[in-house]
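Q: Convert this sequence to structure tokens.
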Amino acid sequence: MKKTLLVTALLVMLPGAAFAMECAADDIKAGKKVFKKCKACHVIKKEKNRVGPHLVGIFGRKAGTVEKYKYSKAMKKASAGGLVWTQETLNDYIKAPKKYIPKNKMAFRGIKKDKKRNALLCYIKDIGGETS
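A:
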């Protein structure tokens, strides 16, 4: 029988509000596979921008704030409106980027399956997506 490692992360949504994301080792492993769809445009292990901004420290970070990355007007507007990347906001964005923030630069159509999105978020969190 396989042992399952459970990681619980508290992610800040709004001041004073948080929710837990539970990630089994299998979720993280599955998320690594899902991330293959993202890695042509995003780096997660170091602060290096590509077609898209790096994802280091994305959880808890205000949208549109990675230095030396040229964001779309739509993403800058979302940032000015106070959008912060949490498990919930990233989940919604990754599901349908153009629907969540119309006219943003991300050409990716999204990940429709909840299980795949959750696995991806677990992987990002595990690799270094949390802010220090």
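Residues 6-129 form a domain with the Cytochrome Bc1 Complex; Chain D, domain 2 fold (CATH 1.10.760.10).
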